[in-house]
Amino acid sequence: MRRVMTADVGLERSEASLLGAVQALGRMAAATPRSAWRTRNQLLVARLIAAAALRRRESRGGHARVDFPRRVRAVGV
Taking burial as the number of CB atoms within 10 A of a residue's CB, which of 12, 23, 37, 46 is the most buried? Predict the structure, then answer.
């Protein structure tokens, strides 16, 4: 989980790396027994972070998308 999050959801992100992370984390979750609920919860949070980053099509603050390098001005701002 740490390797995937660092490599694919780290400082520089792209659609390909984020999709790969969501898939890899899903496989890890499927292979983790229910009794390891802490690990399963951590994997769930990691997948949610990667999925949210995938939906954001801009770079802002610590979220740097190499495929969307510019910040998008918010509506009404």
Answer: 46
Q: Rounded CA gap, 75 and 17, in Å?
A: 28
Residue 77 in contact with residue 42, Cβ under 8 Å?
no
- How does pLDDT run along the chain (77 residues), one tens digit per residue? 999 999 999 988 999 999 999 999 999 999 999 999 999 999 999 999 999 999 988 887 777 788 887 777 765 54
Q: Which of 75, 38, 68 lies closest to 53 in space, CA to CA?
A: 68
Query: Contact 20/8 with Cβ under 8 angstroms?
Result: yes
Q: Under a CB-based contact definition with an 8 Å cutoff, are residues 7 and 51 in contact?
A: no
Predicted TM-score of the model (pTM)? 0.84
Question: Which residue in the block uniquely carries the two structure tokens 């984390």?
Answer: 25
Q: How far apart are CA 48 and CA 29, in angstroms?
A: 12
